[in-house]
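I trust your eye. Have a critical look at both lines of this record:
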Amino acid sequence: MQGYIIKVTRSRDEDLIVSIITQYNLQTLYRFYGARHGAINLGFKIDFERELSLNSGIGRLRDVIHLGFPWMLDRARLAVWQQFIALFHPHLRDAPEIGNFYFELLDAAAAKWHLQNPKRVAIESYLKLLQHEGRLHDEAICFDCEAPIEEEVSMIRAFLPTHRFCSHRKSIPLSRHQAMMQSLSTLYLGDEEIEILWYVLLEGL
């Protein structure tokens, strides 16, 4: 079974509780500490086995193989990846079934993480997530005052549009916002605008 580690919690001694998005669901497994174990970390893609435990309701993580990407040697890209992937645990932890969408979304993002600014990849992935979940708001209506937005648009969590004076946040031209929402692409945005959206994304999925 393959999956992406979206949370690592230290338990007693050096044992770990690991949350993993797999091709099928979200799994939380226990990993016993041992010298023969290879290192695992937030954001790693792994191949693994789940061993059921008779003494606990949580399964055991076994036979882990790290399926690395060359860009993981780039500290800056890895740091952005870990910030992005950590957002998935609070978003999905209470979902009974998640299907294969999130695994495939991370797979697609990881495959092009080295090809462009990774924050652009993260933002475009998030737009697809919002569309998948039916939360993509592409109308130029302020989420706060419900009046039309005409020139500049600011965004709050979940990329909800607002007037700049309603949310007191940095804004981007409405035309670029509309192009992004319709194409699910950051092609029309400059690097400064990417930074604005990145900090909104970090507030949570």
The radius of gyration is 19 Å. The chain has two domains: 2-70, 71-201. The domain at 2-70 is CATH 2.40.50.140 (OB fold (Dihydrolipoamide Acetyltransferase, E2P)).
